[in-house]
Amino acid sequence: MPTSAVPVSQSERAALADLLDQLGPDEPTCCTGWTTRDLAAHLVVRDRRPDAMPGYALPGPFRAWTGRVHDRARDRQPFGRLVAELRSGPPSWVPTAWPVVDRLANTAEFAIHHEDVRRAQPGWAPRELPRPVQNQFWKTVPFLARGRSSSRPAGGLLVRRSDVPDGSAGSERRLHDGEPTTTVVGAPLEVLLWVSGRRDVACVDLVVD
Q1: Is the model's pTM score more than 0.90?
Q2: What is the structure's pLDDT at 58?
Q3: What's the sign of the alpha-carbon dihedral 131, 28, 33, 59?
């Protein structure tokens, strides 16, 4: 279980690698069309191939190149090696290996993809996580929501965490203005999953007014 003593980005990476080792390469995930092998390859490419990073945001030849790099990693590397490389993280010369960048870039990434694997399996349940860990997820919600403008509801968007008393300082954030306003209520990890587009599996309550 994640603790405040270990960066959440690292504890989620380790937990995801453990789960992938346990499940094997051919299990489903919540990423449409991707198996556990596809997801492992994606994360290894993200860690180790900075030349492929532009294709995650830019169309055309950038995206095509990223697709080719991903497919080669998926098809040519044994699954065990993919998981081992995922577990060990990026080489020291890649910026995401630096602790500050790792926390900024990987906290949400690995938590979300860990849940992509967990919640595609039978019998999953939300995790009970320590408050300091949920606090880290809460910090990432506005940044992730900004990058998902095309998929957010029409109108305003307010998020409220349910794991602290109502009215607590910082317990809610208005991410977008407009009418009507959709309010998303849940534990920070659940809200993070919802704003990332995992709405079918995020355990949240919605209020539109």
Answers
A1: yes
A2: 84
A3: positive
